[in-house]
Specification:
This protein is mainly beta and 766 residues long. Helices cover 1% and strands 37% of the residues. The strands form 14 sheets. A 5-stranded antiparallel beta sheet has the order 1-16-15-14-13, with no helix packed on it. Strands 2-12-11-10-9 form a 5-stranded antiparallel beta sheet, with no helix packed on it. It is elongated.
């Protein structure tokens, strides 16, 4: 994915020295991926905070982010894994016909494990699974971890590594970097981005750096970006490791191993002595970077895709090469002339029944119809395009049309996989989804291939904002990259697709009029317009006719309780208000540039804003025309503070901070800290519990020294934890309740989409 609301300003993670650590790392801990939730009253870890089991599900959007790897297991039919750049790893459930998430147990503390750098499969043992997990190599991101499973990802053991990985960085569809020795399954190799080559000899429990490998640190990825002002990708390091099974025998280490390095100079290395020594392969292509490497089923030919950038952006040149291991001859077999406007990335080879079958994908071919997947049945001598005659059915995810009559074939096609048991069965991943075909062989006869969305159960959007009005559609979402959605049915991707007119790349803020909920406003970043409104509950939208002077969109927007006024504090320009739905805008007086605006949910004349820079709450009593300081907190305690107003109650405000949760009943003049919450990241309100008149409170934060999602039915006096250790979802953002259904909660994540949950009642547990 492109857009992320995570930033270094969050202060998450610890900077560590990349090379100043021990060369051997050992396993610590065990995590369960699909264990049963804690039962009510289980206080083993909760202290005084009880656990209330909930049924957690995704609001259906279907994918929505970069699926950068799909892997079929060579020894077990229908055993398929997928990796995403920041949404975790998945396993295909052939019975349910949907993807099962494997890494939802990652907590906010371990948010950096949500980006999957690589997946390793033991070709002789379908139960073993290895995952290299780490999202960023920046100094504010935590170190990476190796996860290993003996039950196909139901449970994992974890080894923390002394370096970082970049599952959401340049070259994230390269690979696979993690490989299992086909002759001796206890041996694994991993090619890192900045710390060289690493090896495990005990099924991934401990790891040692391979000191003999010539590349020990970051690699200058390309000479193509040396021009002034050119986009410069980060180091992609070692992009793949490939074993040659025929060079060894069962029970003994494989002798011949290849490793690709994202260097425009020396890009491919070979070991002929089981990794003891390494040397460059003579004649290997220069000037471009190896992206993916695959060995033909006969063990005699190595295929490698090349491009002049690690991708998924910046490729403008590339080629497909094959290397004959016997004659040591390189042959270019590109289906398109290199220099044609993009590179090559995804690579898949046929099994024993189709040894000459080769498939390859382009990347960043933005012109001439976009990216393509090519198929050859003669080892690359001749090719057939699958795009030109493809028939694509987006009914599972209608937003893939992007407002056009038909969906595009795809972009950022780095994931490409062939079913080893059925050469007609193909999957490829894009920047938004997985497409799947069961008749790819039709291309060999010049016929059309048929594709459906193969991403059911996989959700990978980054959620920025959520609202749930008291009537109409139950949920509106503001997302990164694909704008947002209006959900009437939470279990179906909306048939109308993403919110249109205007179509926004990012929706940064949503609001509705509390007393007139048919009025809905959204603002963000788009192309022709940065915001718009609806007067019929989001069924139809109108872009603002004008925008505040100097505004570049984004920021926050709030609509008064009666729908008569909109205040927009965007990026650039001055905050402004409109009383004619955006026909004209008037600058706001006294509004701090760093604040986020909200509306009082009862009095249409009142607006508020909280500035995390100075820790102050500002208020307006004249419909947003003028703001003045009311009260606040020390800015050192609320750098991530967020102010929320309670529905139907004038002046009733809640403020979330790193230092806890604060409540005001006088419009922000004074705040009282709740002793029951140690840390509050976000807060939302839902329908009151039976017998209560005050809305249920939902908080993401820390209570009883435990991080989680919590609900209070008594104005914050007591709380129950509503998620469990297997449903943590890494870095999470907004949380809100449903004003019509008691106990229903919505949570926005940074890469696992929108989640919703209902309490599991006692009768349902029996």
């Amino acid at each position: 994915m492109n857009t992320r609301w995570i930033s270094a300003a969050l202060g998450i993670g610890t900077a560590v020295s990349l090379f100043g650590c021990e060369s051997t790392v050992s396993a610590i801990g065990t995590v369960a991926a699909n264990a049963a939730p804690l039962v009510p009253g289980d206080t083993a870890r909760m202290g005084a905070v009880k656990q209330e089991p909930h049924d957690w599900r995704n609001v259906a959007i279907v994918a929505g982010g970069f699926v950068n790897g799909v892997l079929f297991h060579p020894a077990q039919r229908d055993l398929i894994y997928a990796k995403t750049d920041m949404g975790g790893a998945y396993r295909w459930d052939a019975t349910a016909k949907r993807w099962v998430p494997l890494t939802d147990w990652a907590s906010q503390t371990d948010w950096n494990l949500r980006g999957i750098e690589s997946i390793g499969l033991d070709p002789n043992d379908p139960k073993r699974l290895y995952i290299a997990a780490g999202t960023y190599t920046s100094n504010w991101a935590g170190n990476a971890a190796m996860l290993r499973s003996t039950d196909q990802g139901k449970t994992f053991q974890r080894t923390d590594m002394p370096f970082k990985m970049g599952g959401n960085e340049d070259g994230r569809s390269a690979g696979e970097r993690l490989a299992v020795d086909p002759n001796l399954g206890s041996i694994l190799y991993f090619g890192s981005r900045e710390a060289g080559l690493w090896k495990s000899a005990d099924y991934g429990a401990t790891w040692n750096k391979v000191d003999s490998f010539p590349v020990t640190g970051p690699v200058v990825p390309t000479t193509a970006t040396s021009q002034p002002g050119a986009w410069k990708p980060r180091s992609a390091g070692i992009t793949f490791v490939v074993f040659v099974p025929s060079s060894g025998s069962q029970g003994r280490p494989t002798s011949t191993i290849f490793a690709g390095v994202a260097s425009a100079d020396v890009s491919l290395y070979e070991s002929a002595d089981a990794g003891a020594t390494w040397k460059p392969i003579p004649g290997a292509p220069k000037g471009t970077l190896p992206h993916q490497g695959r060995l033909a089923v006969d063990g005699k030919t190595l295929y490698v895709t090349y491009a002049n950038s690690p991708g998924p952006n910046g490729m403008s040149n590339g080629a497909l090469w094959k290397y004959d291991l016997g004659s040591h001859v390189w042959t270019e077999i590109s289906p398109l002339p290199h220099g044609g406007g993009g590179g090559f990335a995804g690579l898949a080879l046929g099994g024993a029944k189709s040894p000459n079958l080769v498939m390859v994908s382009t990347m960043d071919h933005w012109g001439n119809g976009g990216d393509d997947v090519f198929r050859s049945i003669d080892g690359g001598k001749t090719w057939q395009s699958l795009r030109d005659k493809s028939v694509r059915d987006p009914s599972l995810a209608p937003y893939l049309k992007w407002g056009d009559p038909q969906p595009k074939f795809g972009w950022w096609i780095g994931a490409l996989a062939l079913d080893p048991f059925d050469s007609a069965h193909v999957m490829y991943g894009t920047g938004a989804t997985i497409w799947e075909s069961r008749d790819a062989v039709a291309a060999e006869r010049g016929g059309a291939t048929h594709w459906v969305v193969g991403a059911a159960g996989l959700e990978e959007t980054a959620v920025i904002d959520l609202i749930s009005p008291p009537e109409g559609a139950h949920l509106f979402s503001g997302l990164g990259d694909i704008g947002g959605f209006r959900h009437e049915d939470l279990n179906t991707s909306p048939p109308e697709g993403m919110l249109q007119n205007p179509q926004l790349d990012n929706t940064d803020s949503l609001d509705f009029a509390e007393r007139k909920p048919g009025v809905v406003v959204r603002v963000g970043r788009g192309h022709s317009s940065h915001g718009g409104y609806s007067t019929d509950g989001g069924a139809a939208w109108t872009p603002f006719a004008t925008e505040p002077a100097g505004s570049r969109g984004g920021g926050s927007a709030a609509v008064s309780a009666d729908g008569s006024t909109i205040v927009w504090a965007g990026s650039g320009g001055d905050p402004a208000y409109t009383r004619d739905l955006g026909a004209t805008w008037t600058p706001v007086q006294g509004y701090p540039q760093t604040a986020r605006v909200i509306a009082d949910r009862a009095n249409p004349r009142v607006f508020y804003a909280f500035s995390p820079v100075d820790g102050k709450v500002y208020g307006s009593t004249d419909g947003g025309a003028h703001f003045a300081v009311r009260g606040g907190l020390s800015p050192s305690r609320d750098n991530n503070g967020r102010l929320r107003a309670v529905p139907g109650a004038e002046g009733d405000l809640w403020l979330t901070t790193d230092g806890g949760l604060y409540h005001s009943t006088d419009g922000g003049h004074q705040f009282a800290r709740l002793k029951t919450i140690d840390k509050a990241d976000s807060i939302g309100f839902g329908k009151a519990a039976p017998g209560s008149s005050y809305p249920a409170l939902y908080v993401i934060g820390k209570a009883g020294k435990v991080e989680g999602f919590f609900r209070s039915d008594d104005t914050g006096k007591s709380w129950v934890r509503i998620n469990d250790d297997q449903h943590q979802y890494g870095l999470v953002g907004p949380i809100i309740g449903d004003p019509r259904i008691y106990g229903r909660v919505y949570v926005g994540t940074n890469g696992r989409g929108v989640l919703y949950a209902d309490p599991i009642r006692e009768s349902a547990q029996r």
